[in-house]
Structures are given as C-alpha cells and as structure tokens.
Amino acid sequence: MVELESIGQHKRVRNYVGGAWRDISGDEELTSVNPATGEELATVPFSTAADVDEVVQTGNEAFESWSKRPVEERIQPLFRLKTLLEEHQEELAELLVEDHGKTIAEARGELRRGIENVEVACGIPSMMQSGSLLNAAPNIDESAVRKPLGVFTAITPFNFPGMIPLWFLPYAVATGNSFILKPSEQNPLVAQRLFEIISEAGFPDGVLQLVNGGPDTVNALIDHDGVEGVSFVGSTPIAKLVYERAAKNGKRAQAQGGAKNHIIVTETADLEFAAEKTVSSATACGGERCLANDIVLVEESVYDEFSDLVVEEAANQVVGYGLDEQTDIGALISPEHEQTVRNYIQTGIEEGAELLLDGRDVTVDGYEDGNFLGPTVFGNVTADMVISQEEIFGPVFGLASVADIDAAISRMNESQFGNAASLFTGSGADARKFRHEGEIGNLGVNVGTSAPMAFFHFGGWKDSFFGDLHAQGEDMIHFYTDKAIYIERWPDA
Length: 493
Hints:
Layout: E1 15-17, E2 20-22, E3 29-33, E4 40-45, H1 49-66, H2 71-74, H3 76-87, H4 89-100, H5 104-121, H6 124-127, E5 132-137, E6 140-148, E7 151-155, H7 165-174, E8 178-182, H8 189-201, E9 208-210, H9 215-223, E10 227-233, H10 236-248, E11 252-256, E12 261-265, H11 271-283, E13 293-299, H12 303-315, H13 335-351, E14 354-357, E15 376-379, H14 386-389, E16 396-402, H15 405-413, E17 417-418, E18 420-424, H16 428-437, E19 442-445, E20 461-462, E21 465-466, H17 473-480, E22 481-489
Parallel strand pairs: 7-8, 7-10, 8-9, 10-11, 12-13, 12-18, 13-16, 15-16, 18-19
Antiparallel strand pairs: 1-2, 3-4, 5-6, 6-22, 11-21, 14-15, 17-20
Helix pairs in contact: 1-9, 3-5, 3-8, 4-5, 4-8, 5-7, 11-12
C-alpha cells in the first residue's frame, strides 16, 4: 500500500485541522479494508461534536482573512494543487484501487475528472463577476458583486473518493470561503493523501480541513451554527434527510441522491457500438456509480440481436484485482454490499426476469477474500419489477423490449429518479424527441455515460437531487456566494 504519513505506523486516520494533523477523540471506530484482498488498511475513529466544533471554529477564523484576499491570490494555491495532483496522479490512482476496489484505469479517469474541476476553479476571477449598469437611474450607477459566506462542508461517498471532493473543494475556497471535507468512513485513505498534498499547495491554515467520522459527525456538521452550507452525495433516503436537516437549520444545501438510469436503443442504432457502451456503462466501477445505466429499453425489432451482442460483450469482461491492467471489473466495496447486490439478483429471478448471464459464481485466483461479482444480465425486465425500480449499485443490468421511441421515453419518465439517460440511434428526430421529452438531468446521445465536463453542472432531477444548485461549473459559484447590490450617486458629479 502507498505509505501515508498522516496515519503513521499505527494506521489510524486523523483529522486535518488548522494546517496540522490531529488525533480524533471519539471512541467509536471502523476498520477500512481492501475490498479485493481483505487486508485491513486503517482504523477510522469517528469525530465527536467537540472535534467538529474545533474544526468549524478554526475554519471561521481562517475565513476572516482568506475572504479579504484578492481573488488572484486565492487561486494561486489552486494552480499549485493542480500541478501536485498531476505529479501524484499515478500514486493516488493506486491508493484509490486499494481503498475502493475499482480498476486502475477507472481510478486514473476519476482523478483526471477531479483535476479538471481544479482547473475550472482557477477561472474564478472571471466566473465571480456580476453585472453593472451605468445610469441605472438619474445620476445613479448600480452594480452587483458576489461575496463569500463562511464555512462550507461536503459529505462525500465511497464510490468516487478522489473525484467528488473536488466537485466542491476548489470552488469553495476560490470564491473566498473555507471548507471542511467529511469523506466516507468506508474508504478514507484517498482523502488522507489528498490533504497531505493540499498541505504542500500553500493554502493558509484552516482554509481547507478534513474531518473523519460517521453519521453523528455528519449531523454535528449540519447542526453547527458556524457552517453556512452543506453538499452531499449518496443514497436518496440519506440525501433527503441531509437536505431537510440542513434546511431546518437555515443552511444552503445541495444533496445528490440515487438513480435508476436508462439506455434506449432504437433500430437505427449501431448495435455493436451500443452493446459495447451499454456494458461499459452498467459495469464500470463495478456498477457502483450514480451514472450507471442499468435498464436498457430496446426497440422490439432489434431486441433479440441486441441481447445476443450484450451478453457476448458482458461475458468477455475480466473480473479481477484492480491493479491488474487487464481487469475490467474490480471488487465491490464490502462483503455486506456484495450480499446486497446478490440479493437483488435473486429477487430478479424470483420476479420472473430471464437470467441471460449469471455472474454470481465468478472466482478470482489468489483473491479468495475479495468481494467479487461478475456481470449479470437479465432479459424481459418489466416496469413493475424491483430490479427495474431500485438502484442496485452493482454490475447488474436488465433488458426490456419496447414498441418504439415513444414507449421507451414514457417508461423512462415513469421512474422516480431523473439522474441520467442515454439514447443510441441514427435518427435525428428520435434524438430531438429524447432531448425535449426526457425528464432527466443528464442526457446523452450515442454516449454510454452522460457525465458532464467540469465546466457544466452535474444535473440530477426528481429524487436524484434535492436542492436548487448542482455540483460543478457555474452552479458552484452561485452556491458558494451571495450577491450584494451597490447603488452609487455623487450629487456633485
């Protein structure tokens, strides 16, 4: 494993407070385990309310001077952070594989996406500008200015421990706020290494801080009077609770929840290409991502042909240890989660779906203690089935035959979720209908995964998102600042 100075020889994660590593006072703890090998990586103590209070107070003290610095000064540490992240990208990717279980290629891609957000945040001097108007009234000029608000926090999930913190962190500090990250307790080591790197980038003490813990730690952050806003990514039930609790406490909140994403395949599509991208979308990162498209609605005239192509493509996926360059699907995060996914497969069988490919008997030589599951494909999945309605978060997906594009869009829109969807077609008319009628926040045509670039916001609709302003891009500027209007008259002018 990559050696981390922040956890030392005792391998206990620590908080990063005021520019220094601090032991955590809580008695409750969890053990972080390599999902592929079963090796214990670190002990994760849970921060108490007192730990959280210290971090928040330190952040507010740092905000007082940081917010007054010229914006050009505030982005200089971000330029250095980008360079450092790129220098350590391969090392971070290897640690991410050990900490999460995904493949090395997926880890590299995740980190690249995170670095892109740092790049975008370096453009804050332009992005923070607001409007002005001379002679808005007789002898009066008016202008709008954006001002930072204080301390913000982000509670991030296990599935993208390198990328998702960087959806928030760069924008928060570039706009003049201080920021506290609470990573997933299941795999906190990437966050530990990220803050080791941050400590080299030149941010003033207290501007960027790290606090580890569990649900009580999260609640303490949300409830603290010194926190201005909360960002969350996780399951829909928890996202809703976080949003409601934050709102009750008068805080800004953005909470991304779960998903049940669809792919639509029409008879005019390039079927081989669509099959390749379908399998990649559903099984990449072991299916543990909110952009996984795991329900595939196929026009009935090509359903049988497409099913054969998908099963062949899925059967060729290599399941194994993520550090092996040949691996396509790595380990799931925990034995408990692996069992949850297996339970969904059994549910699909009991509901009457046709099991086209069964990945439950997969074995990986030399890694018998790993949480491995092979790609599993169902056919004839009806809309009323549990596996058609609930997020599985594993390498499992289902196919269904539909009469036409209208029937497909109608079924897609019936879902309580609205995170992402993809259409494979050769018809511009179908693409336009999909764009205009799809009740989804991230839409893609002839792309397997509708993942927006860092300079666009990450859209989610319906029960996939609670809030008004999304992660990434311009939405972050609005979330982390408030506008003040300045009205000016000089009678003698």
